[in-house]
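Hi support team,

I'm opening this ticket because the web form for multi-chain structure prediction keeps timing out on my end. I have pasted the exact lines I submitted so you can reproduce it. The total is 711 residues across two entries, so I didn't expect it to be a heavy job. Is there a limit I'm missing, or should I split the entries? Thanks in advance, R.K.
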Amino acid sequence: MSAVIEGHHDDHHHGPAKGITRWLFTTNHKDIGSLYLWFSFIMLFIGGAMAMVIRAELFEPGSQIVSPEFYNQMVTNHGLIMVFGVIMPAFVGFANWLVPMQIGAPDMALPRLNNLSFWILPAAFGVLISTFFMEGGAPNFGWTFYAPLSTEYAPPTVTYFIFAVHIMGASSIMGSINVITTILNMRAPGMTLMKMPLFVWTWLITAYLLIAVMPVLAGAVTMMLMDIHFGTSFFKAGGGGDPVLFQHVFWFFGHPEVYIMILPAFGIVSHIIETFSRKPIFGYDSMVYAIASIALLSFVVWAHHMFTVGMPIAGELFFMYSTMLIAIPTGVKVFNWLSTMFKGSLTFETPMLFAIAFVALFTIGGLSGIMLAIAPADFQYHDTYFVVAHFHYVLVPGALFSIIAGAYYWLPKWTGYMYDEFLGKTHFWLSFISVNLTFFPMHFVGLAGMPRRIPDYAMQFADYNMIVSVGAFLFGLSQLLFLYVVLKAIFYGKKATGQVWEGAQGLEWTLDSPPAYHTFETPPNLEAGEAKG
Amino acid sequence: MNNIRKSVSKLFLATLGMFLFGFALVPLYDVFCEITGLNGKVTGPTYGEYENVGNREIKITFTTTNNNDMPWFFDSSKSQMKVKTGEQNLLDYVFTNTTDKPMIAQAIPSVSPGKGAQYFHKTECFCFEQQYLEPGESISIPLKFVIDPDLPSDISSLALGYTLFDITKEQISKQASN
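Hello R.K., no limit was hit. The queue was backed up. Here is the completed structure from your submission:
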């Protein structure tokens, strides 16, 4: 590059800087997208290792491998890392890579803020994980950190946990401001809101949800901080506060958070299903309205997580019916995916296999959610493995499968190289079988009364737990194969074409694979039919 | 560029607004609980006399619990009473500091079922007062209450529970900071 010799400051017009500073100081949406995705991948293995410890301990009844105290730390940090360190950053990574390319924008609206919102994330998790090496051990009160477990009875490291959550929240909020600003102001001329790709739509709504609830979470942990260190009594019954208030504030954040972790998955799966069905998505408009109604309903259902705290009957009924109402827009989406596939020219490449598994298994998770929504029945299910089975079905073969599907689908676009189809399919079948082996029997032990978050269990649950543990180990190992497939594609993969998939529609497929460092510096002309998106 | 600045400032204000809303949930929750009697929350002393003394008999159970490892002796003079609605009733609660240090404690009331909380009127109580006791000191405090004759007919028994909290540490740190 002659830029240096000529003394021009134009190197960012041509290509990335060299070495580590490229990644530290980058403001390029593609670089930051890759950083988010790799960060999430690394955290998947850290959080996954914790899950392996949990399943090893539960392989047989009795106390085997770790102390109950350490088991509690494993459960807590597994949850926190998987939610805030894997699923959310992975979706932000997708948003960084895809939103500008799908709407024909040159980059995100606020590139420097983008750099900051990524780089504070490793700091947050560094703070969180460092608590394992401190006196008193890591947070041990569950990922929901209910007061007073997380205040009066918490280990001293809870303060580090609170600041880690503050930093994660700040990162998410900055990322969301960036996504919304980009989508609202930088779409290519001619791309109206109702012509946007569905992934962009899901992220627009997700970003609004994040802005609405992450500050409430920040408020909740701030109240904890003040209760612990400044003598206030927000949640201390002794001082006139109320621990149940914590649950209300937490789940006011927590329930929309659940949809934050699934809406972008809906977008990814919609794109994959239309590509491999070689048909445009069935009912685009109804898809958009369904996403919006799920998001709105998510604000009025939070107390279904706490039916057993002693609510008035009217409250239980309200939260029960509003929760069940969510099944309608979700059902609309599931049937739209099925209708898209109906009479399509289907082929079953790895991304499609993961997407179909997503539709089937996410629906199982949705149905067990309806069972849990029935307030009188919930008194039986509450805090059992049935709940664990339910939310793992929506998060693992739900959110995580959509992330894996999206990674296979866009990997050739991002890297310019095809992955090994045979290994990809092997990865799929291993994951599909082991994920069901892991989480399906949890329904049975849960209905039979096995409580969650306890390192030991009664003899009658022994057989199922052994099956679950074997499934979990297999699922963990299968993800190492995924890492291998990705690395093999990057280093030894065959060159991919720009179009990559025969049926793929959308602006990102009009670019080369891999796309130039800067794309769409002049917006594409949609009216001229340059793209069919 | 102007549009981007506008979007960012709107979104930043929304973030700030939601942060404040998180804190606004605290008083909102208290108001909501008071209206609905959620969690058996009860108000301080109320003054009410009823002319239409009802003839319904209600069974009242009194429970006392020490929070955590609070060492005091804490009990009520009666564990159960049958009372008529609209009538004044009286019982005593005994607090004894069994340790060799001066301590401050506070008892927090709760009525169940929660629906009945707003009909349980305490006309004289120690509900929101702090008790300071020297080592070995003991006091007995009366509680006077009336059951509102408007108590819904499907409630025939109520329970009043008190949990005693040790707040010595909090009080000392509060005084130190003043």
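A quick check on our side: Chain A touches chain B at residues 109-110, 173, 176-177, 180-181, 184-185, 211-220, 223, 231, 233-234, 237-240, 242, 244-245, 248-249, 252, 309-312, 315 (CB under 8 Å). Let us know if the file doesn't open in your viewer.
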